[in-house]
From TrEMBL:
One Gene Ontology biological process: methylation
Recorded superkingdom: Bacteria
Organism: Bacteroides ovatus
Protein name: Site-specific DNA-methyltransferase
Keywords: Methyltransferase, Transferase
Pfam families: N6_N4_Mtase
Length: 124
C-alpha cells in the first residue's frame, strides 16, 4: 500500500488529532463536522502529480484549527508533509511548528509556507 493515510475512504477510516491544553484550559466538543465530503480533496498537483499522497484540504485543516484554538496559539504538526497545516495556521492567524523528515516534502512545504505568508501577511 503506497498510501499511508485514509485516502477517499473517510467513512471507514479516521486519523487522530492530539490536543494539549495548559492548566485550567478545556476544549469543548460542540462544533462537530458532520460532512467531511463538503471539503474539496485539496490535493494540489505539480506537473500532473499529487504533491503528497495524504494531503488534506487546507479549508478542512483551517476549520479544525479555528474551532479548537485562538489566534496567536501554537500549532504543532510533527508529520508536516507538504505544509498544509502551516498554510492553514497562517491563514487563521496562528503560529506553527512543522516537522518533516522527507527532503522533497520539506522543500515543497517551505515554498507553500513562503507563498502563504506573501498572500496573507503582505510578504512578512
Amino acid at each position: 500500500n503506497k498510501q499511508s493515510g485514509p485516502g477517499n475512504h473517510y467513512a471507514f477510516i479516521h486519523e487522530l488529532i492530539l490536543f494539549h491544553c495548559g492548566n485550567g484550559v478545556s476544549i469543548g466538543a460542540t462544533n462537530v463536522i458532520d460532512n467531511i465530503r463538503s471539503f474539496s480533496s485539496g490535493a494540489k498537483k505539480i506537473e500532473g502529480e499529487k504533491v503528497h499522497p495524504t494531503q488534506k484540504p487546507v479549508a478542512l485543516i483551517r476549520k479544525l484549527i479555528e474551532d479548537s484554538t485562538k489566534p496567536g496559539d501554537l500549532i504543532l504538526d510533527t508529520f508536516g508533509g507538504s505544509g498544509t497545516t502551516a498554510v492553514a495556521a497562517i491563514e487563521s492567524g496562528r503560529n506553527f511548528v512543522l516537522m518533516e523528515q522527507d527532503e522533497i516534502y520539506y522543500f515543497t512545504a517551505q515554498k507553500r509556507i513562503k507563498d502563504a505568508y506573501e498572500r496573507f501577511n503582505g510578504g512578512g
